[in-house]
Amino acid sequence: ERMKVSQRTRRKIWQNVEGWLSILPVVLGIAIFTALPIIYAFYCSFFDTPIKPFTFTGLGEFVGLDNYLKNFTVPTYRFLFWQSMKVTFGDALIQGPLTLVLSFSLALLLNQQLKGMRVFRTLFYLPVLIPAVCSGMLWSRITDPNYGGVNGLLEGMGLPEMQWFQSESTAMPSLIFVSLFGLGGNMILWLAQLKNVPKAVYESALLDGAGKARRLFSITIPLCTPMILYNTVMGIIGVMQTYAQVVTLTGGAGPNYSLYFFVMNIYDNRVSEFGYSCALSFILFAIIGALTFVTMRTSKWVYYGEEG
Q1: How many CA atoms lie within 13 Å of 230's alpha carbon, on the beta-carbon side?
Q2: How far is CA 10 from the centre of its chain?
Q3: Rounded to whole angstroms, what are the CA distances from 6 to 2, 20, 90, 218?
Q4: Is 184:126 a contact under the CB 8 Å cutoff?
Q5: How far is CA 30 from the centre of its chain?
Q6: Which of 29, 81, 148, 154 could form a disulfide with 144 if both were Cys (CB 3.0 to 4.6 A apart)?
């Protein structure tokens, strides 16, 4: 009996060893390339740490919470911090709901069983395949006020030309307009969710005399609330990390800091004040975490099938 127990124990131990060996590359990758840099960045956020290229200057002077508090006490840092907050949250409040509504509407339109619908789905999804940097460079050429093709098209239609990203008043609307060409990514997710709505529910509603609007608001939208929650959370994370497209579109923060997003503030201080840049990164992490927590805690409106 003891021999059987011993063999069974050794077999379980070996099974665990095999499991750990199989996931060891992933664990090492996360530990070395994700966990350690995060811990090091958090440690650096408490030091006055300049970084010089090709040299190691040490962590510098310990400053405690100064890198966090200077956003509220030093005028220059306070202006840039709140300007980046205003731009980031302003974009989130407009682009987030707009993207949700338009991508859902697009998915409803393309969910119809019509001939050639797959071609249209592919066409709407194609812009998503273009990297953000390439897309930004392309749009910066197209929307150039002097020789861009869009202003030429507007002029040919008898419409007034726009300054696009060269004017403070039109920079943010132009960015939102350009971002809408990426609706195809959310559209695919909506289509997958719409395919999961049971057809029997629609058939029962039709028998009860429910019209299109009633079916939309009483069946389709409630059964798509898990995807609404997912797209909301991912949209918050995505907008808060906006950077690459803006830099390639404007080459910087836009006219008069009109497109000075939070991540741009982090990137601008990465060399001269690396510790402060690390502190900004963890402030952004806290903001995203708080928004995600509030969103998840207030998600009682989400309907899951197992709830009956």
Answers
A1: 14
A2: 47
A3: 6, 21, 64, 60
A4: yes
A5: 21
A6: 148
Instruction: Please work out, in degrees rounded to the nearest 5, the angle formed at the alpha carbon of residue 107 by the alpha carbons of 102 and 111.
Output: 155
- pLDDT tens profile 215-238: 888 888 888 898 999 999 998 898
pLDDT digits (tens, 9 = 90+) for 131-156: 888 888 888 888 888 887 888 888 88
Q: Distances from the Cα of 233 to the Cαs of 115, 185, 213, 229, 257, in angstroms?
A: 34, 15, 27, 6, 27
Query: Would you state the structure tokens that stand for residue 177, as one six-digit string?
Result: 């307009």
**Any alpha helices (H) in the chain, and if so which ranges?**
2-30, 36-44, 66-73, 75-110, 117-125, 132-142, 149-156, 168-179, 183-195, 199-207, 212-215, 221-223, 225-240, 244-250, 262-268, 274-297
Q: C-alpha angle with apex 210: 204 to 214, nearest 5 degrees?
A: 115
Helix (H) or strand (E) holding 47: strand 47-48
* Cα–Cα distance for residue pair 172/243, rounded to 1 Å: 14
CA distances from 65 to 73, 104, 271, 276, 293 (A): 12, 44, 19, 10, 25
3-class DSSP assignment, residue 33: helix
Q: Which amino acid is at 2?
A: R
Question: What are 48's two structure tokens?
Answer: 């006055």
Amino acid at 217: F
Q: What is the pTM of this model?
A: 0.83
